[in-house]
Amino acid sequence: MTRIKRGYIARNRRTKIRLFTSTFRGTHSRLTRTITQQKIKALVSAHRDRDRKKRDFRRLWISRINAVIRENKGKVYYSYSRLVYNLYKRQLLLNRKILAQIAILNRSCLYTISNEILK
What we know:
This protein has 119 residues and is mainly α. It has one domain (6-118). It contains 5 helices and no strands. It has helices at 8-20, 32-71, 80-89, 96-105, 107-118. Helix 4 packs across helix 5. The longest helix has 40 residues, at 32-71. The protein starts with 7 loop residues before the first helix and ends with a helix. Belongs to the bacterial ribosomal protein bL20 family. It is found in: Plastid, Chloroplast.
């Protein structure tokens, strides 16, 4: 019997996976079995961290707003939670990203917003 060579489909699949993991170190970019494992692991981590990034940025924005609001030496003790509560009560829809940018770039504007809400 003559020798049957495998087709090109499996080789193409392996080279496609190998291209994905070509920048990985060691056997993670050389051996086919570990290449497939590392590709799955990388895709799972990327999917998980896309959601985590949103969470982390929201926490960062909240801490920035809170730090700037607490620095305000107004008449009353003021915090982030009271600011957001009063914003919703007045139906001013400013998201946390915009509030954080205002807090960093223009503190006096944030102070005026918080003072106008209290009135």
